[in-house]
């Protein structure tokens, strides 16, 4: 998650059951976050063990899919409300009802009387039309977190049937830059925001039958479709890349001011949480990455966009968290984050500090940053392009604003921090690794073997989960692929006469033994 964190310490393999606070100790964000992660892991593991990989409560199972074909309009899906669990994660498809507004005229006590003039409406004037009844269900096109665009052919439902309708589930962080209601305004604008949130994102998406590798898609049974989907989902969620990190004393360390110990391998003046994130996925020849020393948490809400000029709500609270000429930024909004389709990073070319404006190296793509309701903001990344060849020949040239992935060699980030991508990786946009760097040790915190060699690790996220919902056939019929479960509790059995007599006899024997015991 992109948040201002010191580090993330939860590891399921350690089998910790709770975090125990001690008196007189410093309270850290990492401890509180680990307690939350422990409880969440326990609850979701229990739910998955009892329910299975996916399922919904009988009588209120959500995500029942109805196909709505259109001769003129685009095909659509009706997503019925209710709850559904995927790998223990609760997904709620219930569509919230809009609130009822207060009618000021009715509140003044006179129906049809103006609150300002006190006169009745014109005789014979038609009543205003009743507002349309709000929809009770979501559809494929207006579901809350998918942001499907009818103008994009790739977003439309497959024309070739049958196809599978799947539920994709993942989580992302939300800060006050995206949801201003999280900010406590009583603290004042000079104070930073407080806690961030983690949001469950569910998306109903189609999977073409060709991707499932079914021998006879048109005649496939429910069991065959489910088995093929399970194989597809395991392949889609399996980690395809690994990374290692270390700190090595740079060759130019002797030229640096004496801000850290001479033998320190990490040369930075402050503790940092480095985030290395894949920008564009694919093979090593196609993939790119970006990195941040602040876990990608330095963001700037956008007030207005005018070509390549961007007006910001603020330019940062200090020199460490500000935005300057030469910085690389990612133009982000809620739809961009939810779709997970990376766009080129842009460089800050000019900064107008009094006007809180910056000029970018290009105009943002048409699909991002132009709808205020999607809360656009800039996210700063800390890598830079350089023309020199860094240590050990790792070239730092940019591709669409991001660094090229180079496998099988150590790539320097800054201040001695280096990363290594394992060969033959398959990279996904959003895959990321977190690397805490500490001045006290002059190194980074990363798993090592007995010989103190860094270990290759899979991405820390994004963890994606899938569940099958429906199989839409050529006849526009839907085969329901959901699972349901009933409540565990049932009525207590009524006690019969022999059972009551046995209980009374046992109670009488207990009293007899107590009466027979001598007093001390």
TrEMBL record:
Highest taxon above the source species: Bacteria
Residue stretches of biased makeup (Low complexity): 108-123, 493-507
A Pfam family recorded for this sequence: DUF6519
Biased composition (Acidic residues): 124-133
Residue ranges, annotated region (Disordered): 101-159, 493-520
Start-end of Basic and acidic residues biased regions: 145-159, 508-520
Protein name, entry field: Uncharacterized protein
